[in-house]
Amino acid sequence: MHHSLKRSLAALASLALIPTATATTRVGSPIDGTVTATTYYSSGSFHGSVDIAGQCDDPVRAPFPGYWNVTIQTTSTVCTGSGSGLVNEAKHGFGDGLVFRIRHFIKNDKSYDRTCEGNCVLGLVGGVHSNGPGVHLQLDKHGTHVTSWYSGYTTRGEFLSFDETVGHI
C-alpha cells in the first residue's frame, strides 16, 4: 500500500508540472498600414502603445471579436491633426481592470456600441495625432499601459496588412 500511495502522489505531482495552455486573444491589425510607434516614440519618450499609419477614410475594423464600447468626442473629419485634443475611442474590457482601446478614428454610421463577431467596422481612419492618419492601439491594466501584448510580434517600421497579427492578449 505504501508504494501504491507513493506512486499516486508522484503521478499527481507530475501533473502539476505540466504547463497548461492559457487562452489568448489574437489582436489583428484594424487597418492596412505601417507601425509608426510602439513602446517608445522615435524621440525616445515612452508611448506604451502601437500606432499604425493608414489612409484617411479607410475602414477601422475591430481587431478581435467581442463587445466594443464606442465613445465619440468629435464628429470632425480630421485627417491630419495636432496630436492632442478630443479623440474617438472604441474599447473592450476583459475584466480585472484590463482594457483594450482603439483611438483616433473618424465617426461614421458604424460608430456605436455593439458586439462584433468578426471584423466589423468601428469608424474610419482619421488623423488626430501628429503622424497623420492612423490608429492607436493601447492595452491598460488598472490604468497602466501594458506593452507585453505586442512585444515580439510587431516593430516600428513594419507594414501590417489588415488582420495581420499585431500581438496577443
CATH fold description = Glucose Permease (Domain IIA)
Uncertain runs are 9-20
Please tell me the overall pLDDT. 87
Q: Which class do the helix and strand fractions yield?
A: mainly beta
What share of the residues lie within helices?
A: under 10%
CATH architecture: Distorted Sandwich
- General shape: globular
Q: What is the ordering of alpha helices and beta strands?
A: HEEEEEEEEEEEEEE
Task: Report the biggest beta sheet as strand number plus sense, adding barrel if it closes.
Answer: 9 strands, antiparallel
| Distance from first to last alpha carbon | 47 Å
Count of folded domains: 1
Alpha plus pi helix count: 1
The CATH class label is Mainly Beta
Strand content: 35-45%
**Overall number of strands:** 14
Rounded radius of gyration (Å): 20 Å
CATH superfamily: Glucose Permease (Domain IIA)
